[in-house]
Write a structure and sequence with these properties.
This protein is α+β, with helices and mostly antiparallel strands and about 200 residues long. It is built from 8 helices and 4 strands, in the order ααααααββββαα. Strands 1-2-3-4 form a 4-stranded antiparallel β-sheet. Strand 2 and strand 3 form a beta hairpin. Helix 1 packs across helix 2. The longest helix is centred in the first third of the chain and has 36 residues. It starts with about 25 loop residues before the first helix and ends with a helix. The relative contact order is 0.08.
């Protein structure tokens, strides 16, 4: 709604849709109905807020990366460590907001459940060597999660697993994609099946 001057007027109680607390689609609709508001407007406002927050955080992230390099050149390890920590926190918050934005899609729950079992089976058929960033030579490769000078990861294409002896962890193809891409299980399955 806009007033006679053209400024946007928000009904009382609508500020709750802009808060930092996580709200899923059903919670937003319920809250909007309690306040006597149109749920579609409340959902749009929440999406706008999340998009704004993501854009702002990405901009701040860019500044932090620049600062980190400046501190590294100057040899200020404490300031650099602070920047690295802040970068990780911003990155994690951006992922949370992006995930929440995905969940606000009305078809989210239907799409998530649709043929997930078939998709998991199809995803597990993808060769684990295909998702590794480094080439697999005679069942060995360097681990993408730490600096390697020697091959510390054993890859079994037949079993579809990779084991890093340095990290002391074993992954199947879905788990490896989850760790490499920083995504959850359902997203990794869709990534592997291009679904």
């Amino acid at each position: 709604m806009r007033n006679s001057v053209g400024l946007e007027i928000r009904p009382k109680g609508l500020s709750e849709f802009f808060g930092l607390g996580r709200m899923d689609r059903d919670e937003i609709i319920k809250k909007a109905e309690e306040l006597g508001l149109d749920p579609s407007i409340a959902l749009k406002m929440r999406k706008d807020y999340l998009n704004y927050a993501i854009t702002t955080m990405r901009m701040r992230l860019g500044y932090l990366v620049e600062d980190k390099w400046e501190y590294q050149k100057a040899g200020d390890t404490i300031a650099k460590a602070f920047c690295v920590s802040a970068i990780e926190e911003y990155d994690a918050q951006i992922k949370i907001y992006q995930w929440e934005l995905t969940k606000l899609n009305p078809d989210y729950n239907k799409a998530r459940r649709a043929d997930l079992g078939d998709l998991i089976t199809e995803a597990k058929r993808v060769s684990i060597a295909y998702v590794l960033p480094n080439p697999v030579i005679r069942g060995r490769t360097t681990c993408p999660f730490h600096d390697d000078k020697r091959y510390s990861m054993a890859v079994s294409k037949e079993k579809g697993i990779a084991t890093c002896f340095h990290c002391n962890e074993t992954w199947d193809v879905i788990g490896l994609v989850m760790r490499l891409q920083g995504i959850d299980f359902a997203q990794a399955v869709r990534y592997l099946t291009r679904g």
